[in-house]
Amino acid sequence: MDEEEIRNDLNLISMQVILHAGNARDIVMEVLDGLATKNPDFALLDNKLEKARAEITIAHKNQTDMLQREANGDFIPYSVLFGHAQDTLMTIQSELIMAEKLVPAFRELKEG
Asked: Is the N or C terminus of the chain more exposed, i.e. has fewer CB atoms within 10 Å?
């Protein structure tokens, strides 16, 4: 691969990370909105958390694939876009972890 092909591939992977992490964030926000209702549907919220985890997994796999290429000796140029993608993934992964802690806590409070 020449440098232009590598950059194009890196940009594509970066956008996939951002896309799937963003999808996860949208779902996490739906979960948090659901918790704020008078009668949360915990089965629905659990299902949404599973969907958010699946999106994060896809984003993480894309990031890991690129990191493994570099670890295997492929030249991967510095990319602000890839750095942004990694930051986005890390932030949303933290948001998901918090939501995963809040749902059971709210369930416990509701069910007493």
From this structure: C
Backbone φ and ψ for 66, nearest 5 degrees, come out as -70, -40
Give the helix/strand (H/E) hosting 104. Answer: helix 80-111
**Confidence class of residue 104 from pLDDT cuts 50, 70 and 90?**
very high
Structure tokens at 11: 């940009």
Q: In the prediction, which pLDDT does 63 show?
A: 97
Q: Is the pLDDT of residue 94 over 90?
A: yes
CA angle 50, 51, 53 (to 5 degrees): 65
Angle value at C-alpha 29, between 28 and 32, nearest 5 degrees: 90
Give the separation between CA 94 and CA 46, rounded to whole angstroms.
17
Backbone conformation region of residue 73, classed left if phi is above 0, alpha if psi is from -120 to 50, else beta: left
Determine whether 84 is an active site residue: yes
CA-wise closest residue to 60 among 96, 7, 109: 96
Q: Which residue has the tokens 């089965």?
A: 43
Chain mean pLDDT for the chain:
96
